[in-house]
Structures are given as C-alpha cells and as structure tokens.
Predict the structure.
Amino acid sequence: MILPKIALRNLSRQLRRSILLGGALSFGMFILVAVNGVTGGLVSSLQKNFAGLVGGHIFFLQLEKDPEGRLVNMVKDDSAFIEALENSGIRYKSMTRQTSILASIIFSGEAVSRSLTGVNWAEEGSFADKLDFAAGSADNMADSDGILISLTLAENVGLLPKKNLTYGEKALVERDVKIKWKAEGKNYDLKKAVDAEVKRLEAEREAEQNRLAPAVIGEEVLAQFSTVYGQQNVASFQVRGIFRTQMDYAAYVDLGVLNAAADMGEGTYNLLGLVLEDYSSLDMKTLRLHTLLQGKYDLVPYQKLVNKAAQTAVGELEKEDFTGSKTIVTNLNNELGSFVQILTAVQAGSFGLFLVIILVVMVG
C-alpha cells in the first residue's frame, strides 16, 4: 500500500505535468492502434482480394530449360509438395491447378491482351461461384471450347457497347450542358449538372449492355498466344459467360483444351495455388514448406524471392545456366511486393513514434 500512495502523491505534486504526460501517452497509444488497425486492414484486404484474383496465398511453380535453352514453365510432379503440405499442418480452403498464359483475345479485328487461364472445371467447379455473371454461366465448360470473359473485355473487343464515356464524349456533354446553362441564366452548379448528365448517360449504357449481353453468348472469339516451346498458335473459343469484375485480369477456358493448344502434356499445369484458411504469418508458413521440401526439389532460395513477383523470379532464371528443373515456392506478399513493404514501413514508423513518446514520458 505504501508504493501506490507514494506514486499518487508524486503525480499530484505536478498535476499539470502528469496530465500532459498522460495525454502524450494516450495520444501515442491512439496513433499506434489507429495506424496499425488501418494498415493491417489494408494488408488483409489486399491479400483477400488478390488471392481471389490470382487463385491463392501460396504458389508452387516448376521450370526447366528445353534443348534450345528456352525456359519452360510446367509442373509435372507435385507429389512431394502435397506430402509436405500435409506434414506442415497448414490448413487451406482450396487448391487450384491452373495453366495461365498471356494471349491476345481477338474479335472483329480488335485485339486485347489478357491472361488466358485454364481451369480444371471437374475438380474446381466452385471456381465459377466467385464470378458475378452478367450473362451466361460456367455450366458445361469442362472439355469444351467455351470461354468466360469480363464485361470490360467484351467492351474492348467490340462485343458490347462501352459503358463509360470517353474523354471526347464527356467534353461534348459539358459543351451541351454549358449552352443550356447559359440559356437558363446560370442558376445552377455547372460541374454538378455535367456530372449528373454523365452519370445518366452511363446508366443508360449500362442498361443497354445488360440487355445485349445475352445475345453475345455463343459468339466466336480467337486467342493468339505462344506455346510453352515458343511457337505461335491461334485457338477458337465460344463465349459461354460474361462476368462483372473490378479487377479485369483474365479470361477462363478449360484446362485440358488450353494445355493441348499450348503444347503442354496431359495432366500438367503451370501454377498451383493454395487458398489458406488463415493467411496471417504468410511468410512463416511459406518458409515452413521450404524447409520440408529441402532435398526433394531443386528449390530457388526463398531469400531470392522476397518482395519479388513470380514473373520477376522467372525472368532471373532465364538468365541462369542450369539443367533439370527449378522449383519456386512463393506467396502473395511477394507478389504484392512494394504494397506490403510500404504498409509495413508505415506500421514500423507508428511503432517508432510510440517508443519516442514512451521515452518522453519516462524522462518526465
């Protein structure tokens, strides 16, 4: 009982100073909690959204060089990875085995670059549940020449009219509204009126898109791409579904059909993705898999993958002289790279500020 009394007596002797120090401590704690909460939420949101976009939190790739020295991205044997995953205790929601290649989607002379992704619809039927369809569906996609495309892609290749007004169209709208504005005696906000007219026209176009979208189902589009061995190829697909998305990234086809067109062997793919139940401590979980895979694959050291996208790591491997196959086990944090780095730096900065405030309080 003596120490608390002494502490209270000392605090009450310099009441103003004690209040200021207490306020500084409270402010520091508030900044730490607020910044960490916001940045942590942003990191979690990025991980959740991008995981749905690219198909996982942890990724497994295998690469080898063909007789001509070209780097071939093709997973032929993932048995050791699956065994290590089971022994790691890492719990996951789903696993995807997909082939993804860069292609030009062509319709009526218009061409747009997209990632053409092959999905094993028999094993990953739930993949289509993530897509918000404006027309059509993913039914009967397995072993077919069907393709699922985004609304944006449909707009860009001319399958559907564009929803958003171009800069030139907005300038014409502003001109017409300004003429009306002057004629009516300038009795309302010009910018607000222009924005309202643009919004009205884009709403009309969106309604027209929705009306026309079902008629696009069954249209034929072409995909031009390079096979895994560098030859140019063109494949024909029929539009089976059009989906809405905020992040237009890929068009989806059947895995077997794409593998045959890309000259990949049956049962192979080029990217395994794991969607984890708990994606906190993602780097630690990836390192755990690396440790369990030592000696089973020729692994690219994890230190070389930190804060690098998989495509960057693949580009570095192209310059190396090696035989056999190289295996990459990476994660979403490395794919996001600078985004995660910036948010982590902000968290570290807020913690540093809190330590300074603590030091000031201690001196006081």
Summary: The longest strand covers residues 92-107. The first helix runs from residue 2 to 13.
